[in-house]
Amino acid sequence: MSDPIPVEDSGAGALRVPDLSAIPDEPPDEILYQHRVNLVESVKLLWDHREIIYTLAERDFRAQYKQATLGIMWAVLSPVATLAIFVIVFSRVKAFPHQGIPYALYAFVGILCWSFFASSVGSGGSSLLTNKALLAKTQFPRECFPLETMLVNALNTVLSWVPLAVLFVIFGRAPKLATLWVPLFMLIEIAFAAGVMLAFSSLIIQMRDLVQVLPILLSLGIFMTPVIWPFSYIPSHYHVVGGFYVDLQWVYGFFNPLGPVISNLRATMLLGHNPTWGPLIAAMCGCAAYLALGFRIFKRLEVNFADVA
Amino acid sequence: MPTLPDGTIRVDNVWKKFRADRTKPLFYDQLQRIRKSVRSGAPEYRWVLKDVDLEVEPGGSLALIGINGSGKTTLLKILSKVTYQTAGSVQVQGRIGALLSVTAGLHPDLTGRENVFLYGAVLGMGRDNIRKKFDTIVEFADLTDAIDRQVKFFSTGMQMRLGFAIAAYLEPDVLLVDEVLSVGDANFQQKCLARIDEVVRGGTTLLYVSHDLASVEAACEKAVWLSDAVVRASGPSKDVVTMYRTAVEKNATLLSNKEGAVQVLKADIRAADGGQLRSECETEVSLTLTAPEGAEASYYIGISQGTAFPMFVVSHQAWMPAGEFEVKCRLGYLPLPKGHYSLWVAVTGFPKGQRDAYLQWQPLVSFDAFGPQRRNPPEGVMVLSPIHVGAEWQIS
Predict the structure, then answer these.
(1) Contact residues on chain B for A305, CB-CB shorter than 8 A
(2) 3-state SS assignment for residue B301
(3) Which residues pair with B349 in a beta bridge?
(4) Pick from A36, A256, A270, B155: most CB atoms within 10 A?
């Protein structure tokens, strides 16, 4: 601002009346605000605010079941209901080979995986919208909102391991030793879900049409992911013109890391096999790419979250 | 950039633009918008802040004043990093406590107790810290009995009290407060102001937005007047507030100078003895008006400082003659300290059933009164209107 005209002097400094005619119509280019994002710093900042994630998750978790008569039982009941539908619809068809595993067990593992992903992306995607009031009025890393939603879904998923345990007992089976690999698969799935969720949540707040599109994509996704069909349906050697073979399982695994995750989950936990590393590594690369891309989109768009919310 | 001490706020040449029309996301409207902008080349945005500078030292207190839409809240949001500036630089050093809305963080389905932890965390208070201050917060909000009830069963006032009480115990380096003192009843408002004052005296920097000029003067030593996206004046809060009041008055005159049944030819206020207007003197108000037709009417005369809300009003019912006539009103005692005031006048139909005002409530003349300075209240206490009351004290 140009030289202010001092008018009168008193205790707290002089009264200044700036010269309004000196203000240009547009700000000079050199002072335009650049939103610089430092990956390490944002992660550190997020870590510093982890308590907010816990608290918000606690809020949603409590609020979710507070008014329901059955309360927290719903976390267990709803995956069981989905399972019942799948068993009724598909076990009689006998269209899909399930390697001698009882179909209920076979399908439930897939359902658990898928429902964590779908609910994380579904509710996490609109988390910025549902937390509009907080978004526009309080200040902490915006990633807290989708991540908080994800944490709630993770909690729900953990609760639905109870019926899984019951299924094991019913069928007289025990998880194999190779189950120890499961945390790795979960990590891949979490990273994948986080990437997709970050991208969708930041896009949805700019373009509300996506609120309608997302459920459609998700209901399509369940059939494109080996939830009800085995991963082995995807050829691992595919002949391409020119004498080359491509491992389609790798390609699929890169774009949909859930494929290898679910198939390996079944192979290790139910059959005691070792993980098939090829598709799994492709899945790891894939989820890293999704996470990086999602984070980038989120950070790029976060500048105007509060303005468009 | 040199690091400033904790509690400093520095805003240099900050600009912020908003898209001009964000209310029509429909496909058809978008097409229209594109077509329009291609044709006319008019900018599709407006500036809500233009080249704004301000600085607050650690421990200082600054108020932002201005009419609705002048950019005050946007500036606060930029300072708290809720949103980002389009250009310019903003530095807020230290832990920020931003109270942009008292109830935004409260979840209706959770109990008051759960909400204290939730909102506290959201505002940046650690869990242990909240646990330590929990009882103080609940006591401050006066909600000891209701704290385990779901917040949706709280009254609006109770929710606001809870929200403010949590924020009041944040103890940040910089406290940003937006228009939240309209909270609860007068008693609680006073408690809030006192608490803000206590926090500031504890060394916290305060940035305060309010329309309530009395509380601005009570809480802040400096003020910045924002108008139409630019800083119009900055400096000691008393001076800035006075300037703002004068401008609001001028605006009010412009607005109300519309056609009425009654026209004002002359308006005057003076001391009855012909001297200067001064505190406690006998005062005479005289108006020369014309009316198109005779009617039964009520006359109102009030004196205000900057707002349309008068400090006091006198009224009278009498027959209003047709044509030019004179109204004289003698005030036995002028209860004003030294300052700048304005005289507001209205003439309405009588009895009350006749709703139309012959002369709308409007400021006619502004005048200076001489006399003793207004006495200041204890720190952090708001004075609603600066009335001078002569008093003789005796303490034995």
Answers:
(1) 83
(2) strand
(3) B297
(4) A270
